[in-house]
Amino acid sequence: MKESEQAFHETLVHPAMFTHPNPKHIAIIGGGEGASIREILKHKTVESITMIEIDEMVVDIAKVHLPYMNDCSDINGAAESCFDDERTTVIHEDAVSWFKDHYGSKGKKRNEKPVKNFDVIILDGFDPKDGADKMYADTAFLDALFASLGKDGVFALHVGNPFTIHDPKPDLGVNAPREKFFNILENNPSTAAMMVYEEAHAGFEEPHAFLAVCKSVECRSRWYSEPVVIDDEIYDRIKDTKSGKSPLIHYDGSTHHSFQITPRAWETVYCRREPTPFECAYRGLDMNKELFEMGDEEEEGSFDVKTESVDGKQVKSVFAKVDIPKGSYIMPSDVAASVALNDHVINGLKDNTAVKETGQITVIENFLDFVSKNGHPSMAKGTKLNYVEVGGSTFIRKSKKGKEVNVGRWLPAHPSGKLPVWSPVYERRMMAFDVFIVATKDIKAGEEIVRPVKF
User: DSSP of 202-258, one letter per residue?
Assistant: First the structure.
């Protein structure tokens, strides 16, 4: 435990902390050994920690026999013992009752809240299938938990052994309580996003799984930050140590990057739900459908690009050279080369156009004009990602007239009208869903290829 617990607690605490833009007030449920407090106190932004641990004896034992787990002596500005830090308050009560009383709709102590809202909550206890049914199956408790969070609130927990591709549908067997917990979260109106991640260096014989839940969909833009962005945040937020040693032994930008793609087994088991989720039919390109490419100097393509005069302007359009059956993939190699640009990048370029001394304004403005004409936002709200096509597909004419349109997204709109808050299929394959184009009807040779204005 001594050799691995820090990696475990870094994995539990820091992804959620860095997914919040400015975590000041933190709650911990359980965690009586003090290690979660230790990791949280490494953040410069933290002003208060409220730990709700029902068993006072656990804390007393940890202080005597597990001092390395609650030792904050090397953290600049922290107390010797994490429990003694002035920002830490330990409450020995049942967490379920405590949250209901203080933040529940019928709470008896709503006027006695330690803080108005928590920014991050860490559930450091049993995972959903290990005897904690009271907590994870109690909808009133989870409602109170969400009510206690601010608008950008995040909570995280350990969810036990990950699925394997050989597991049955998730509501059967030992994992049934976890599936019930996930269902409750998915149906809670305050859940905006759920991200599952795994860590193989947490001291167990196999990887263990964790879950981060966001109250705002905007958290996705932070969750999916590039490694260099996370590393910069670590440099800016994490305190130095008195010894000069690195305060983090495992978590960094690249580690966080490994958490961003949900492992395949979660997708496989998710798609064994009954009824089968809509998006599970799109887990890979249909091998029975044809690919129609633009072509290049070495290989003749299936399309012609012609220039026509429209209202006195020379406009390029794309025409089919061959018959294209409905459902076929249109220029997959071209659209797969699309460039992903974050809103921050685009806004930064726009800001640069105001700096007249650069001498490059025309180039930047031309590029932004190209992005405006050939880019579209990701379907995944909150990611702030835009995909800009750069190949032959940029010549496909756009039309508001539905009768003209004959190509569209590979993945149709979700039947519910919105994306699920939890779907490993979308998490794993969103770029493909965002860029791949298919024929929405049979297209005859000589017909113009036309796409909808909104893609």
Answer: SSSSS-EEEEEEESSTTHHHHHT--HHHHHHHHHHHBPPBSS---S-SS-SHHHHHH
Coil/strand/helix, residue 174: helix
CA distance readout (Å), 357 to 353, 361, 363? 10, 9, 14
Is the CA virtual torsion 356, 357, 363, 364 positive or negative?
A: negative
Distance CA 303, CA 322 (A): 8
Nearest-angstrom CA–CA distance, 26 and 89: 10
CA separation, residue 412 to residues 257, 310, 390, 391 (Å): 28, 31, 23, 23
CATH class of the structural domain 5-276: alpha beta
Domain residue ranges in the chain = 5-276, 282-452
Residue 124 bears catalytic tag: yes
Domains 5-276 and 282-452 share a fold: no
The single-letter code of the amino acid at 157 is L
Which class is 282-452 in CATH?
Answer: mainly beta
45 SS3 class: coil
Whether the Cβ atoms of residue 217 and residue 193 lie closer than 8 Å to each other: yes
Task: Characterise 417 by phi-psi region: left (phi > 0), alpha (psi -120 to 50), beta (else).
Answer: left
Q: 53 to each of 31, 57, 68, how far by Cα in Å?
A: 7, 10, 19
Tokens describing residue 90: 């330990």
Which tokens sit at 32?
Answer: 């009586």
**Catalytic annotation, pick one of 124, 127, 152, 334:** 124
What is the SS3 string spanning 54-83? Answer: CCHHHHHHHHHHCHHHCECCCECCCCCEHH
Q: How far apart are alpha carbons 90 and 37 in whole angstroms?
A: 10
The residue count of the chain comes to: 455
- Tens digits of pLDDT across the chain (455 residues): 677 899 999 999 999 999 999 999 999 999 999 999 999 999 999 999 999 999 999 999 999 999 999 999 999 999 999 999 999 999 999 999 999 999 999 999 999 999 999 999 999 987 887 655 678 999 999 999 999 999 999 999 999 999 999 999 999 988 999 999 999 999 999 999 999 999 998 877 889 999 999 999 999 999 999 999 999 999 999 999 999 999 999 999 999 999 999 999 999 999 999 999 999 999 999 999 999 999 877 788 999 999 877 667 778 899 999 999 999 999 999 999 999 999 999 999 998 888 766 566 788 889 999 999 999 999 999 999 999 999 999 999 999 999 999 999 999 999 999 999 999 999 999 999 999 999 999 999 999 999 999 88
